[in-house]
Amino acid sequence: MLKISDLTTHYGSSQVLFGIDLHIDPGQVVTLLGRNGMGKTTTINSIMGIIPATGGSINFEGTELVERASYKTANLGLGLVPEGRQIFPNLTLWENLVATSSNHLNVSNPWTVERVFELFPELETRQNSMGNLLSGGEQQMLAIGRALMTNPKLVILDEATEGLAPLVRQKIWASLELIREQGMSILVVDKNLKDLLRIADRHFIIERGKVVWSGTSDALHKDKAAQHRYLGV
Q: What's the rounded Cα separation, in Å, for the pair 108 and 193?
């Protein structure tokens, strides 16, 4: 579904990614792991076209994404839940959901506000609240719902549960499992390894802009040396 090959990205004259290779198959949950500052968010932003890649290939279902405008990439079926959530503070929760809703791929059973409320019942009672008055957990649920309202084939979450209370984190993980059961592919960046090992099919660990380890959840669970060396757990 998504195949990244030899991806390089720069910020001005400073190179951040040094030949990233990564792939996601249809219906998979894949993680991008690593300590802070190793290139995870840059990889995501390069996929989405927010930061232009300077080399390599990003292929999504046969379409090359390098040098493609970010809105055109999104219209192919990629939905982003960005780091920091980026909720529109001066719009209500309901307005945040409908502001970017679309169905460019003509999905037969598209995501609607009602379906988002079924996934996150907590949001329905807050639908008239302004974005800046929502709690961190509510904002994260809203950010996921907003991405789903674009009816993507692949949803990408950057720091999916950062700063959230344990009960809210479990709600987020449960929602991702439900989304996956409906056939959606997921790429997730997060630090909660225990939960990621439970829900993900494959993991890619980045160290200084390079993939230094990849494998299944079972393989990563058993490889305590890799966990300690690259993740500090």
A: 35
pLDDT, tens digit, for every residue of 124-172?
Answer: 999 999 999 999 999 999 999 999 999 999 999 999 898 899 999 999 9
Rounded CA-CA distance 140/138 in Å is 5
Domain total of the chain: 1
Q: At what angle do helices 166-181 and 136-148 cross, to 10 degrees?
A: 10
Residue type, 162: E
Is residue 57 a contact partner of residue 5, using CB atoms and an 8 Å limit?
yes
Q: Residues 50, 82: contact at Cβ < 8 Å?
A: no
The Cα–Cα gap between 86 and 82 comes to 7
Q: Give the residue numbers spanning the domain of 39.
A: 2-231
Tens-place pLDDT, residues 113-134: 999 999 999 999 999 999 999 9
Helices of type H across the chain: 40-48, 70-75, 93-99, 113-119, 121-124, 136-148, 166-181, 193-199, 217-222, 224-226
Please give the Cα distance from 99 to 164 (Å, whole number). Answer: 25
Question: Can you give the CATH number for the domain in which 181 is found?
Answer: 3.40.50.300
